[in-house]
Write a structure and sequence with these properties.
Layout (H helix, E strand, L loop, with lengths): L2 H13 L3 E7 L9 E6 L3 H17 L6 E3 L6 E5 L3 E6 L1 H7 L1 H6 L5 H4 L2
Helix pairs in contact: 1-2
C-alpha cells in the first residue's frame, strides 16, 4: 500500500475534522483495495467538503481518484484511490449500512471457533 497516500488521506480527514475515522485492513478479504477508510461528517455539506479535501490531498500526492460516487446527495461519498477506498458518510447512513461490521466479520479469532 502507498503509505504516503494513506498519510495524505488521514491528513485530509483531520484537516476538515471528520468524525470517528476508522481504517480497516481488507487485504485477503477482497481484491478491490488494501484499506478502507471510513469517516463521518456532521452534515451533507461537511461530507462533501471532506470528500473534496481527500481528493485534493490525493492529487497533491500524485494520485488521481479512479472514481468518486455520491457527491450530489453527499450523504455517503465514496472516493476510490485504488489501494485505498475512502467512505465519508452521515452518521445515520453509517449506522444503517454498518460497513465496519461487514468488513470485520470473522476477525478476532471467530474463524478458529468454527474449527
Amino acid at each position: 500500500m502507498n503509505e504516503t497516500l494513506r498519510k495524505r488521506v488521514i491528513d485530509a480527514l483531520e484537516e476538515l475534522k471528520a468524525k470517528d475515522v476508522r481504517e480497516l485492513d481488507v487485504r485477503g478479504k477482497t481484491s478491490i483495495a488494501d484499506t478502507l477508510v471510513i469517516a463521518s461528517g456532521t452534515s451533507a455539506r461537511h461530507v462533501k467538503s471532506i470528500a473534496d479535501e481527500v481528493i485534493k490531498f490525493a492529487k497533491q500526492a500524485g494520485v488521481m481518484p479512479l472514481g468518486v460516487e455520491g457527491q450530489v446527495e453527499a450523504e455517503w461519498v465514496l472516493v476510490d484511490l485504488g489501494d485505498i477506498i475512502v467512505h465519508i458518510m452521515l452518521p445515520r447512513i453509517r449506522e444503517f449500512y454498518g460497513l465496519e461490521r461487514l468488513w470485520t466479520l470473522g476477525d478476532d479469532g471467530a474463524e478458529a471457533a468454527n474449527d
